[in-house]
Amino acid sequence: MKNVTDSFVFSRHWPSAGSFGFNTDILATNPINLSVVIGVLIFFGKGVCADNRKQRILSTIRNSEELRRGAIEQLEKARVRLQKVELEADEYRMNGYSEIEREKENLIKATCDSLERLENYKNETLHFEQQRAINQVRQRVFQQALQGALGTLNSCLNTELHFRAIRTNIGILGAMEEITD
Asked: How far is CA 96 from CA 81, 83, 93, 111, in A?
């Protein structure tokens, strides 16, 4: 037995240890430590792998499988809903774009109509102002011509010619009066 003890406890490393001591040589003590740990695990670990534990593990696995299947189903439903929502979003987007285009065309048309009305109003205003200016020029020309004619008549007519023109006009008016009676 001394040989066995000597193989584990090296007195040359522990000179004061005597027959009992700690062996610091890892290579020599490792198989012993492993066999002790395995023995303790086997003795105390029997209940860990019992049937009850196995059943709980199996039921947990089954439950997790059912949960996984439920999650996959929910994921598929969510994907279907996502596709449906994406289609609706695309439809709304396209409807929005077409609505924007319609509004843009309507706005352009309304603006063109407004511009056309303004152009017509401008042309009418210009025409009215031209007619007014022409009428004013005509009145001035007529007034100047009348003043010129009156001036010429007054300078050319003497009193006798003037009386003769008045008598002639009175005679014409009198003849017209007899004809109407």
From this structure: 22, 19, 5, 22
pTM (2 d.p.)? 0.36
Per-residue pLDDT of the chain (181 residues; tens, 9 = 90+): 444 445 444 445 545 545 666 667 766 667 777 788 888 877 776 665 566 777 888 889 999 999 999 999 999 999 999 999 999 988 888 888 888 888 989 999 999 999 999 999 999 999 999 999 999 999 999 999 888 888 877 777 677 777 888 889 898 888 887 777 6
CA triple 173-177-180, angle to 5 deg: 135
| Runs of H (alpha helix) within the chain | 2-8, 26-44, 51-156, 159-180
